[in-house]
Amino acid sequence: MTFYTESYFMHQQQFNSLVNYVVILILILLVLINSFRYLHHQLQTRYRDLGIIFFILLLIFAGLQITNLKKTYSQQSQSLQMRPFIKAVARDHNISPKKVVVNSTTLADGIIVRFDKRDYRVNLSPNGDNYTLTRAHVVDHRVIIEK
To answer: If I label 106, which of 14, 19, 127, 133 is the partner at 20 to 30 A Cα–Cα?
Structure first.
């Protein structure tokens, strides 16, 4: 079972976007370099062909990034709900937020919260403004903690 810490929710979305932006920046540079080389050597069509290939790859990665923006925004807004929840559990039980881990990246009824080597099932109210914790016992005790 995989559990997530509070710091995971702060840093998870930034890495994927960073990789896409780096690839897009590299492709822009390759398109510019090949455009300059093509203008300098107009009789050699290989530079034009490479430029076209890099431009098509740039369009594909830019399209993927635009498509992922909506998904990333949705995931990020759901992840933002988890940080206040983790802090509320920690505050209610007088422990550090670093000691609270959850088994889901989104706040939903039925997720498992672990602290003090005990597992609890979360029961959320319909509007999500309060919760109750019920002691739970997990079947698989192998735990992976994503930080």
So the answer is: 19
